[in-house]
């Protein structure tokens, strides 16, 4: 983002908000959440009056599908928000015209002399300015390319939705990251791996003949937050998705997305040349295999000229890959990269590779497997790295690879769907977790070498950049299962656009656009959201605990679990509780994976006294009686943390209940039901984890921590998922 300048007095804004309070108290009506944050209901009367005077006609210049989408959005949006149609015109005729166009599509924009400035903002950037022309005040949304104009339109509508002043605008924005992509772990049978919001949105059986109109709404929602790519199928890929039959279906999806600037990508199964092409090998150095991929890429681009490229999970969790044929990751990635390069495509190669050797620390595995290849990947390859070294835990330290591969384009992979964070049952706003990650300082080039700067290419001077989020969408009417899970989809888009956006800003926007503009309600809901991640960590995995979830589904606690053949799928492997203490020693006396971080980070994490307490048990095996900064023992601190989490879940319910008048009944009741489940789960977590660890610590629960509701045996007997089918 270059700059965002709003030159208006705060006074006017406050006045608008006061109107909002009155208006929304009276206007609550049923809602099912389908409209997401793109609800264009009438604004409060005061704001409407003011905005109507500013926008008297809409002049969108350009007839391409994208410009038509921009026009339709503006016309519909303004009609809804202002409560009356704003006429569409072809010329600027009076005061209050809103002109939208690109340098090519609009003679008006071309005459403004902004060519250089717009070129500097790139194809997706935009400028919004209030200009005076012959005594008339005109608002201009301009860009060098159409995608930018569309993003500018959504930005302008967001200003109205959040009651911002629009009388003297001077906004210039461009996305900090180039590829802003949702990864769908959707299978061809429409099941969704780690999906908690119904079935896959892609109806493969009906495609390509029938294209669900919902696909347009999906693309539109993505465009409104700057997401410009979508990987349609699971990384645990089925070769069929690359068959001629399925490519036609994918092409129909791509057609539906195109007006909104969303490109499609596919996950590629590495062994597809064997399964689809009948070859004997998929060895990346085998000329026939490489040729098969080249032809496949040509076939895809004939059908989908703007196809984004491939995402690949190779040699991970049973997936085939170059190592299956005695080759390495570079051989595999570069062979695929060569196939898509002539068409401008990319390969997103995943770093989630964790082969196990006896005594291995899984947290160090991706680094060991990938770091040696730094500087050897082709220019159109991005290495897609999860935010933390294990696997989308409620809290992890940043992945050490972000500081260790300066000659490789590293693309963070975040998980929007809540695999380890209570599925679509728990209210947890993920922006604070992602911000913590993006703001982490790798110290790779000294102080200030944040993950955000690695990702946006500024630290290592890279132009091809990106961020991926594992999608949480499905056929659920509200898209994400939990109304508040929509906020995580929203936050992913906003942070991929600008990784420095604050969680507060993102939450505030989302609440005003989605739920209510009533100021006290906005304050209490944003507070709830901003506290929610810390609270979830407190009742699930405080102080650096990780991966103590139940079995393969990961819903609810099972720290006692040790039955999996693979050591590192067992919670006991991660927490290492014994009579002496708790936690995984990753310092020199243990696995020493802390050495994968740069010097000052490494020293801080490695020191028992300097280690941030939120990561204490991640890096250290700590005696039960260890004095924490609070003065409590480790055991007492742990117990208090679980209790704090439960207390928060209870308080959250109360606070939500008190908002009944400010939010429509339907969504209010749905969220209230989920919060009741969240409270029950928090208690379940507290009791079962403390009871289990107590068998090692042999210490009583400190005062202020409630006695467990069941026995350890009872908790062990049943997965939390089984107590409530709605948790699925
Ligand atoms: C798509 C974790 C999840 C798997 C997922 C895998 C991955 O292990 O539990 O469901 O597989 O991560 O990211 O590839």
3D structure, described in words:
The chain is of the alpha/beta class and 728 residues long. 38% of the residues lie in helices and 11% in strands. Strands 7-8-9-10-11-12-13-14 form an eight-stranded parallel β-barrel. A six-stranded mixed beta sheet has the order 1-6-4-5-3-2. Helix 7 links the parallel strand 7 and strand 8. The radius of gyration is 26 Å and the shape is globular. The N terminus is likely disordered. Bound molecules: 4-O-methyl-alpha-D-glucopyranuronic acid (GCV). The site of 4-O-methyl-alpha-D-glucopyranuronic acid has 10 residues, from loops.
- Quote the distance from N terminus to C terminus: 39 Å
Mean pLDDT: 94
Quantity of strands, as a count: 16
Helix/strand/pairing category: alpha/beta
Sheet-strand content, in percent, reads: 5-15%
Compact summary:
With 728 residues, the chain is of the alpha/beta class.
How would the blueprint of this fold be written?
Layout: E1 3-6, H1 10-27, H2 45-54, E2 57-60, H3 65-82, E3 97-102, H4 107-110, H5 115-121, E4 126-133, E5 136-143, H6 146-161, E6 169-173, E7 179-183, H7 214-224, E8 229-231, H8 244-257, E9 263-267, H9 272-275, H10 287-303, E10 309-312, H11 329-340, E11 346-350, H12 365-370, E12 381-386, E13 409-415, H13 431-438, H14 451-455, E14 466-470, H15 486-497, H16 503-514, H17 519-540, H18 571-575, E15 581-582, H19 599-606, H20 616-619, E16 622-623, H21 634-657, H22 665-697, H23 712-717, H24 720-723
Helix pairs in contact: 3-6, 10-11, 15-16, 16-17, 17-21, 21-22
The structure holds 4-O-methyl-alpha-D-glucopyranuronic acid.
The site of 4-O-methyl-alpha-D-glucopyranuronic acid (GCV) has 10 residues, from loops.
């Amino acid at each position: 983002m270059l700059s965002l300048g709003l030159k208006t007095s705060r006074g006017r804004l406050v006045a608008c908000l006061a109107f909002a309070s009155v208006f929304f108290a009276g206007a609550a009506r049923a809602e099912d959440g389908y409209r997401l944050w793109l609800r264009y209901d009438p604004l409060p009367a005061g704001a409407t009056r003011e905005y109507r005077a500013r926008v008297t006609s809409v002049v969108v210049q350009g007839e391409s599908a994208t410009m038509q989408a921009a026009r339709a959005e503006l016309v519909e949006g303004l009609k809804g928000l202002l409560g009356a149609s704003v006429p569409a015109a072809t010329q600027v005729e009076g005061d209050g015209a809103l002109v939208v166009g690109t340098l090519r599509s609009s003679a008006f924009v071309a005459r403004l002399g902004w060519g250089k400035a717009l070129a500097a903002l790139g194809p997706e950037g935009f400028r919004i300015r209030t200009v005076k022309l012959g005594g008339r005040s005109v608002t201009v949304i301009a860009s060098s390319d159409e995608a930018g104009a569309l993003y500018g339109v959504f930005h302008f509508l967001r200003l109205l939705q959040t009651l911002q002043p629009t009388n003297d605008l001077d906004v210039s924005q461009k996305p900090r990251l180039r590829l802003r992509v949702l990864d769908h772990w959707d299978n061809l049978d429409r099941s969704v791996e780690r999906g908690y919001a119904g079935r896959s949105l892609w109806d493969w059986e009906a495609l390509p003949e029938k294209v669900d109109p919902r696909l347009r709404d999906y693309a539109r929602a993505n465009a409104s937050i700057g997401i410009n790519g979508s990987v349609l199928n699971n990384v645990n890929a089925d070769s069929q998705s690359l068959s001629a039959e399925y490519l036609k279906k994918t092409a129909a999806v791509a057609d539906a997305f195109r007006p909104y600037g969303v490109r499609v990508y596919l996950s590629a199964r590495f062994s597809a040349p064997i399964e689809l092409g009948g070859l004997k090998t998929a060895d990346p150095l085998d000329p026939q295999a490489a040729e098969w991929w080249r032809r496949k890429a040509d076939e895809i681009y004939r059908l989908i000229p703007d196809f984004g490229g491939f995402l690949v999970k190779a040699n991970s969790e049973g997936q085939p890959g170059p190592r299956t044929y005695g080759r390495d990751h570079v051989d595999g990635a570069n062979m695929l990269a060569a196939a898509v390069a002539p068409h401008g495509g990319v390969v997103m190669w995943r770093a989630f590779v964790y082969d196990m050797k006896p005594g291995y620390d899984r947290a160090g595995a991706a680094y060991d497997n990938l770091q040696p290849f730094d500087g050897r990947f082709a220019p159109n390859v991005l290495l897609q790295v999860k935010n933390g070294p294990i696997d989308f835990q409620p809290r992890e330290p940043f992945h050490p690879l972000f500081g260790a591969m300066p000659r490789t384009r590293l693309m963070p992979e975040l998980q929007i769907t809540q695999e380890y964070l209570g599925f679509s049952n728990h209210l947890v706003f993920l922006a604070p977790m992602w911000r913590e990650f993006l703001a982490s300082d790798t110290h790779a080039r000294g102080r200030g070498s944040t993950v955000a700067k690695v990702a946006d290419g500024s630290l290592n001077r890279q132009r091809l950049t990106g961020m991926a989020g594992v999608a949480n969408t499905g056929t659920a009417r509200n898209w994400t299962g939990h109304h508040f899970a929509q906020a995580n989809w929203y936050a992913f888009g906003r942070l991929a656009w600008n990784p420095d956006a604050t969680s507060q800003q993102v939450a505030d926007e989302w609440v005003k656009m989605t739920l209510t503009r009533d100021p006290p309600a906005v304050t209490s809901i944003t507070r709830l959201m901003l506290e929610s991640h810390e609270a979830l960590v407190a009742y699930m995995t405080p102080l650096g605990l990780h991966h103590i979830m139940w079995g393969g589904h990961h819903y609810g606690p099972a720290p006692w679990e040790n039955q999996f053949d693979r050591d590192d799928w067992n919670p006991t492997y991660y927490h290492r509780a014994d009579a002496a203490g708790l936690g995984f020693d990753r310092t020199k006396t243990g696995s020493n994976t802390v050495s994968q971080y740069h010097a000052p980070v490494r020293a801080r994490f490695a020191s028992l006294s300097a280690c941030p307490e939120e990561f204490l048990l991640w890096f250290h095996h700590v005696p039960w009686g260890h004095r924490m900064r609070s003065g409590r023992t480790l055991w007492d601190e742990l117990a208090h943390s679980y209790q704090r989490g439960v207390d928060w879940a209870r308080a959250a319910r109360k606070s939500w209940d008190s908002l009944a008048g400010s939010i429509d009944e339907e969504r209010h009741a749905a969220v209230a039901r989920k919060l009741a489940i969240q409270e029950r789960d928090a208690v379940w977590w507290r009791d079962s984890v403390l009871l289990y660890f107590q068998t090692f610590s042999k210490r009583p629960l400190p005062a202020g921590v409630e006695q467990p509701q069941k026995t350890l045996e009872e908790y062990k007997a049943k997965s939390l998922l089984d107590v409530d089918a709605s948790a699925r």
